[in-house]
Write a structure and sequence with these properties.
15 strands; 10% helix; 221 residues; three-stranded antiparallel β-sheet; 38% strand; mainly beta
């Protein structure tokens, strides 16, 4: 079935309608799978950097965080969690690879028993197992992470020539995550930051901190 082409502002307004009910992975997935966000409306939120993939905030409130991630050839993430939140990824341009992992154990399992985050991290003997590897292509299926499948890494499949852009939706917003050093079998908590907010490039290291509702961006079509 053909997807409806909409602006990013209409995309946000549709997401906000889910806030009047219980937000589930499948309900948001069904919506995201029926629409295509127009490239022109995303232009203010597309910023590339030669050295790092960039996280560009489009919208944020108490329930949803929406960003673009822009990938130069060869860029990839660390293996990481999503802090126990629901996530949806829409491939917008180019082709990404996704590797999903299963947590098998660590030497500090008690660090998972905390309020508000998935884990304190700090293990020196973490065991992960690859579950699957998939390709995420522009116009292809929307990929998800949920409370059961929450550990993965992403990378631009093109190592030399093609840039990639993806749209990421989190519920609730995520300010930190657990990242894994696969060589040393260690994990640690990583504070997240934005490369740009609402189209404006941030000073390096700007935290992904909550924004008051009065300061939310006014999107234009």
């Amino acid at each position: 079935m053909a997807r409806s082409l909409i602006s990013v502002s209409d995309f946000i307004e549709n997401l906000r309608s889910f806030e009047q009910q219980i937000i589930t992975r499948d309900s948001v997935l069904d919506f995201c799978s029926t629409v295509q966000v127009s490239d022109s409306s995303l232009d203010p939120f597309i910023h590339f950097d030669d050295n790092i993939y960039t996280r560009n905030l489009v919208y944020r409130d108490d329930f949803f965080e929406v960003m673009t991630i822009c990938w130069q050839p060869g860029h990839k993430t660390a293996v990481h969690t999503h802090n126990g939140q629901l996530c949806w990824m829409i491939p917008q341009r180019g082709n990404l690879g996704v590797i999903d992992y299963k947590w098998l154990g660590c030497d500090h399992p008690e660090n998972q028993n905390v309020v508000g985050i998935d884990c304190l991290a700090g293990s020196d003997h973490t065991k992960l197992e690859v579950v699957r590897e998939v390709e995420a292509c522009a116009g292809g299926p929307v990929l998800t992470a949920d409370k059961l499948q929450t550990i993965h890494s992403l990378y631009n499949l093109s190592e030399k020539t093609e840039r990639a852009v993806s749209i990421h939706v989190y519920s609730r917003p995520i300010d930190s995550c657990v990242a894994f050093d696969m060589v040393k079998s260690q994990c640690y908590r990583r504070e997240l930051s934005y490369f740009s907010k609402h189209g404006v490039i941030e000073p390096k290291g700007s935290p992904a901190s909550p924004l008051p509702s009065s300061g939310l961006v006014q999107l234009t079509k």
